Amino acid sequence: MAASPALASAVLGALLALAAPELTPIHRAGYCAFYDECGRNPEVNVSLVSSNVPCLYNRPAHLATGPLLQLLRSVCPELVRGDNDTRVCCTVRQLTALQVSVALSGTVLARCPSCSRNFANLYCNNICSPDQSLFTNVTRMVNRTTVLGVQQEAVVEYQCFYSQRYADAAFNSCKDVRLPATGGYAIDTMCGIYGARLCTTQRWLDFQGDKNNGLAPLQIDFQLVPNGTQPGDGIEPLDERVWGCSEALSADQQPCSCQDCAESCPAVPAPPDPAPPFRLGAVDGALVICVLLFGFFALVFLTALMCRRKKKKKKAAPAPREGCAVRLGTYSHRFLADVFRRWGTLVARHPVPVLVVAAVVAVGLSVGMMTLQLTTDPVELWSAPGSQARQEKAFYDEHFGPFLRTCQVIVTARDQRPGATYNSVVLGAKNFSGVLSAEVLEALLELQDQLTGASVWMEEEGREVTLKDVCYAPLNPSEPSLADCCINSVTQYFQNNRTHLAMEATQTVGKETGTVDWHDHLIYCVNSPLSFKDITTLELSCMAEYGGPVFPYIALGGYPGEWYTQAEALIVTYSLNNFPRSDPRNKWVLSWEQRFLEVVRDFQRNHSQNLSVSFMAERSLEDEINRTTGEDIPVFAVSYLVVFAYIALALGEYTAWRRVLVESKVTLALGGIAVVLGAVFASMGFLALLGLPSSLIILEVVPFLVLAVGADNIFIFVQEYQQSQREPGETREQHIGRVLAQVAPSMLLCSISEVICFLLGALSSMPAVRTFALTASVAIAFDFLLQMSGFVALLALDARRQEVLLFLFFSFAGLYLTLHVTVGLDQEIAMPEDSYMLQYFSDMNQYLPVGVPTYFVTTSGYNFSSTEGTNAICSSAGCDDNSLTQMIQYATRFPNVSYLAIPATSWVDDFLDWLNPTGRCCRIHLFGNLSGQFCPSTSNDISCLLGQCLDTTRRPTVEEFERFLPWFLHDLPTLQCAKGGLGAYDTAVSMDANGTIMASRFMAYQRPLRTSQEYTAALRAARALAENITGTLRQVPGTDPDFRVFPYTVTYVYYEQYLTVVGEGLFTLALCLVPTFLVSFVLLGMDLRSSIATLITITMILLDTVGIMALWDIPYNAVALINLVAAVGISVEFVSHLTCAFAHSTKPTRVERAAEATVTMGSKVVAGVAMTNLPGIVVLAFAKAQLIQIFFFRLNLIITLAGLAHGLVFLPVLLSYMGPSPQATTGDSKGSAGPDTGLALGNPCFEGSVRQRC
């Protein structure tokens, strides 16, 4: 290690020998290397500031007096030694230019006083230090002659020697300083091609000394001397005092904040990771519990079975006396049977009038569909108006306007397009992907030219609408031109200009000369997107045509790390204004988006050989859902036709093939379909008259549900009538009345259960679920009424014309699988299989490197203008450690938990920097016609020279805050003042007429989110963070107790439902099960055992259905919940008829009663429920929409098969064990009971023929 200083000294000595030492022969304390100004640098063609260079001057420093000393105290206070002994190597002109330069950097660095002071000191020492010659060695100068003929030696390049300690300390104090407007680092703008990630001390200083950066007036070669090393030849490296970023400059100042200085950060414990899966040892805990539960209930069942067998061996006990419940059940059933018998006979005698009345009522109510409002907006469908997300969306829209609309194109190269290595004379060798080629960039410019020129004719307004009429123009919102439109694209690094893209120039770097072109400019801009001028001889700006920066993570995708030139995707994003639906301009933007889609489709088709193009417009999602719905209407129509054909054939009694057309019940089948459609249309018309909107999902689900319920009742009624023989002396009308008396009670039981079930389901907070449940309940009620009237009349007219343990295992397996069902609905599922959006979603998930912006919104009731209020929001020096922006920044350190990737932009921080008196952002005209008014940073009016808004760096008073904030929000950012708020913040603060802040927002960015589970988790994490921030800000004096902070992004309103959909689903399904049990209990004559059996079976159907959902990749969401609610209704049909038949069977044993109920009623359930569902469900497998395939084909198939298996296999076995005790049929008088008296067995309706049942 001892050889290192010697080696470094030798290298530096060689550099000095090469560097024309005669230009600075004296290196001594008190001597200058240059002094005063010698005009503009002839080697700098384009400069954003003055490029005046100093004159060669290797003589003693000058005494600073008068205005020079006064200005020195302000700009370089560390160089002031006293009133009479302060010497400097600069003039007032130089110091004034230095003041301007320091002000430029100050607007970016002032939020961290230590960094700002250290950075200013670098240039103060370089330009004004009295010991300048000690660390400065002029290496190149040019001779010039003034207009007066004076010969001058102008310095155009020099070496500057810093100790490694000094340079590193200055760099470390600045490397973490943030840019609140971008969420990035200030060093990104100060390190050229390297950006913050690759920036080092040497690279940082090299950029400052690069004459091509648009800011440096001459070339400076910074030499960092290792500590303890002397370059020789009298040179001593500069090694001044440097303030660490955690140090305060003085007792009345604050150190840099945590956001700008890691050393100032308190210890922030990492938030806990998401809870790991529940495990017992190495085994899934849920699986162990389910196995134990199965074992326990199996043991209970087997033990009860053994005890029952032992009991049977004993002498049968005498039959208990009939209790009140039995007598009440018998009476209620007799009453219902008598009512339905009389009603059926009456209808059969007057079928035509009844049909006419039923038709008139159904058609009359159906007319209400003319006022039906069909809801297609996903927000209105799935988010409750009173939900937190909807309220927050309404608040956001009220104060900031609707979220911007987005049109986006993602371009990738086909596999055959290889990448290439580009050797830059300036920047070295870089790998470029196949998509980053001149050919592709030219094609992208062609596309953007077409889109810029795209227009649509609006017939109603009689005008043409172009992009400028609908685009978001942040820097010129009032009268935008096409150039003002916010378009983010890689070609914006060339201002969407073909001439800029095609530019080439010759450049010499050291001894190497080469050509620079678009490759060099692109490399520079992706690493320094905020630059107004690159460091090549192209001298192009990196700013977009509309005046804002284009960040590489917005315009490029699919790159490894931060190697942007290896990006696999080019992303073009058009931001459009989002107008309310009631605004006529909403049609403008929708029409332009349609034109956008047409242009991009043409581009995709024309470049399909070498480019893969995916795209979307804001309207695309709703368009594609509506398109697939329209295209799948024929599939639903075929489904209904198949069901109709089955009903027509299944209702007949056939004696020969040749009599199929004669004996088929086409009339009854048509009548059954008419009853179902009449019920559906009448219910929708009735609810429409009440002002309740409908939706496409209701049109798709409710008819199937009502058809399943209605067809079951039709089959039971018709087949019972066909199997029943007319008794001697009984008329046809009486026969129909008697059959109706036998079957109507069970039909009533099912219908009442389902109606109440769906009415309770309407308590759901989700609009789509609530509307579906209300429509289904009314439709089923109308269906029952029409069956009892119109269909009975049709039947009269037509008659005139012609095992347990296995299922227990399945249930607990279903319970285990239920815990593994995915919750959510990915956007891809909502699209048809042939949708162009699927490719877009795939590319978005693969290539987009950053997620959507997330705003943290403050409500009214907070005093931003007080010092305490300001400090609790901002993140610069003097701000609270737990301020709003600081807490968001903490969260971005743990993106796996917070889902935030980029810290929040902060108008408060930039407002404070804008007020900083060292800059020229906030100035006031002191006299003249504009006295007291705002003076822009670009103005050189003499009335603004000393008109800084604040006299010192401090927090503004309440009056100053309220006066200057509107100026800041509408100040156009310029090179002289990059902190102007127009574009970045003018819409971020909402104020009333009195200037009171009613709302404000702070924008952060999420990390890329791929699935609905991640979107939901991100919402949950953001709300938790906002609640913590709210709690902190409410402690600020003067804060309203109702003040709060909430997170908002455009996706929250869609994904909020998944925070509660599981609990709400369990609650809704439980509510549906309660009336099923209670109605069964009442209508079966207080038969507790049969009611419990019904409840158990339906619950097991639901458990197994949800379990199979996990196996068949069916996620759980609101659409699935609608189907599960419908599943309860269908399960009632599978279960209740058979339970009712069992309860009123007269067979002597439970097994015989179960067998009779299965044989006689089971066939009707199969024909009326399962077979009317299955043909229609199978047809839905051919639908284009994945949503229909998954949630209507797969899920309804599961529901039907699970209901069929449980209703016809499990339920009879369960009833044979736990059903009510059978009546002993001894052949004596009515109502007599044997030892095993059952319920409702004294009713003559249930005596005699096996066919007589409820």
Automatic annotation (TrEMBL):
The record lists the membrane-crossing segments as 285-305, 352-372, 633-654, 666-690, 696-718, 739-766, 772-797, 804-825, 1066-1085, 1092-1112, 1118-1144, 1165-1185, 1191-1215
Annotated compartments: Endomembrane system
Which GO terms fall under molecular function for this chain's record? cholesterol binding
The Gene Ontology CC terms held by the record are: endomembrane system; plasma membrane
What's the superkingdom here?
Eukaryota
Principal location: membrane
Alphabetized UniProt keyword annotations: Cholesterol metabolism, Disulfide bond, Glycoprotein, Lipid metabolism, Membrane, Signal, Steroid metabolism, Sterol metabolism, Transmembrane, Transmembrane helix, Transport
Gene Ontology BP annotations: cholesterol homeostasis; cholesterol metabolic process; cholesterol transport; intestinal cholesterol absorption
Signal peptide residues are 1-21
**Membrane topology term:** Multi-pass membrane protein
Annotated SSD domain residues: 632-797
- Please list the reactions this protein catalyses: cholesterol(in) = cholesterol(out)
Q: Which residues form a coiled coil?
A: none
Q: Which family does it belong to?
A: Belongs to the patched family.
Please state what the protein is called.
Answer: NPC1-like intracellular cholesterol transporter 1
Species, as recorded: Aythya fuligula
